[in-house]
Queue: 2 jobs
Job 1
Amino acid sequence: IHLSKATFTLSAPDIRRLPEDTGIEVAFAGRSNAGKSSALNTLTNQNGLARISKTPGRTQLINVFEVAENKRLIDLPGYGFAKVPLEMKKKWQKALGEYLEKRDSLKGLVVLMDIRHPLKDLDMDLIQWAADSDLPVLALLTKCDKLSQGKRSAEVLKVKKALATLNADIRVQAFSSLKRTGAEQADVVICDWLAQ
Ligand code: GDP
């Protein structure tokens, strides 16, 4: 499996419009502006694959990318952006919740968090939910190029410790789309999930 083979399949406003729920999916989730689109572009080696948001909170659709037959990457709507009307926020949260709860083909969750402020309430909710559902998690601590090597390691350790209490299959990796830090490690984990 090569993530660089990813091609855009469709954008869906809700889970009913997604491709048939067969095969394997790895989903990407994170607060708006966490660096999700950039990470998808980095991991697939395709600059234009996911649109990098000029206005945070604009990605409201579930975007589907096919990597191989019945192997998909799912770009879930970003959450937690303050300047969005409550009604809209509720709609996205609902789409996100529905997807996570109902999608049988979901076999791994990549959670993107800015390394400078990880583990916000909604991040924790998501990771806790994955842990309760026995879904493996890869936590990517994004934009790590913004921290010194020392601070980076300290942040990774802090997050690892906090998540270890959940006793679940959770990996934590410092990541930078700018420098490709952690891209190789993330690629191995995601391809491993997709290859099942
Ligand atoms: P999304 O809303 O989660 O999809 O986030 P985006 O990928 O659109 O990125 C949000 C902002 O963070 C953009 O201005 C990106 O250029 C910036 N960004 C994303 N990844 C990195 C990174 O690895 N390093 C740095 N320095 N900036 C990044």
Job 2
Amino acid sequence: MREKIPPNHLVVFGRPGSGKSTLAERLGSEFGYTLIRTGELLRAAIRRQDFLGKRVEAHLATGDLVPDPLIFEMLEQHLKAPGMQKFLFDGFPRTMGQVPLLEGFEKKLGFQIGAYIDIAVSHAEAVARMTGRRVCPICGATYHLIGKPPRVAEICDNDGARLEKRKDDTPEVVEFRQKIFDDYAVPILRYYQEHAPERFFVVDGEQPLEAVYAVTVRALGLA
Ligand code: AMP
């Protein structure tokens, strides 16, 4: 049997609360992927209160999507030709309009996405999980009170900062963000399933995190 060649560059999809960011962080640290997380890049811009941050703050607060041209502008500044780096996109593309943006970056910077991974979780399970979510205001690391607790309660393992609830994790915003996922991400998943079936993987995200990780690693041929 032919050995499966692990993909260099990945995109991870999953509804808010699916555990995709935790999975992305682990794939990043164990297999050397460089995480490109549009949500975290936007939150960092808001923390800095720079020009981009001021323009996107209201969108993130309500759970609404940031317009495609701003996402393009931000990634255009952030992304450099990967060289030896392996990219892992978390949170992009988020609309059908962003699909050609990713294709444009692939062409321009000379890389190709080797796998699209959909961490599939039901709406109800995702909502339940989002209430336990915490994030570090300094480094952006994500935790979960049950799924991935910090070593010391409410304190970041990396820098000792007190963890916070994300501002967009209120019940109304949580519901709204689920709806946004249903409206915008479902067509993207369908698109990749049809156009790149050999590179498209669905992983059952309702299993314990450890199993989600193990299944993903196996599916991608990483171990
Ligand atoms: P996340 O951390 O991926 O859950 O993203 C948090 C928020 O950032 C989302 O609710 C959107 O408001 C915004 N956001 C992140 N990535 C994108 C994107 N690719 N396109 C539009 N808005 C985004």
